[in-house]
Amino acid sequence: MSITVETSLVHALHRASQAVEAVVEKQLADLGLTSRQATTLMAISGMSKSNQSELVEVTGIDRSTMADILRRLEIRGLIRRPRSKEDARARIVSLTAKGEQVEYECRHVLVGAEAIFRLRLGKGEAPLLAGLQVLAVAPKEAAGS
Prior knowledge:
By secondary structure, the chain is mostly helical. It has a domain at 37-136: Winged helix-like DNA-binding domain superfamily/Winged helix DNA-binding domain (Arc Repressor Mutant, subunit A, Orthogonal Bundle), CATH 1.10.10. It has helices at residues 9-28, 35-45, 52-59, 63-75, 97-120, 125-130, 138-144, and strands at residues 79-80, 94-95. A two-stranded antiparallel sheet has the order 1-2. It is globular and about 55 Å long.
């Protein structure tokens, strides 16, 4: 099978990701957030007790980038990270009241961004694309082969 730029699934996914990222970044700019920061806030909101390792797992953001994101969000007063009572090495991450408000605004912005892309998709394509998250595990499995 011959693959070209025009027929490459890898390239198509990359280009689609770039397009989505550009729209999302533009819409989040008014909040002063990047898409990864917004994703992190939403992940924290969806977890009762989260730590950095769990956030890395849920978001797919690498550990060092996540550490930087959490530091920046803490400086802005959007999260707090007290040490865990069970494990002094770990920090429990949670949203502040200000963080909850910004996270709510992020969700509103992302609903608008998603609407832009859903309009371009045919019936049934959005759930199909959402299901592609299973591919996130593929590189780890392939590395072990």
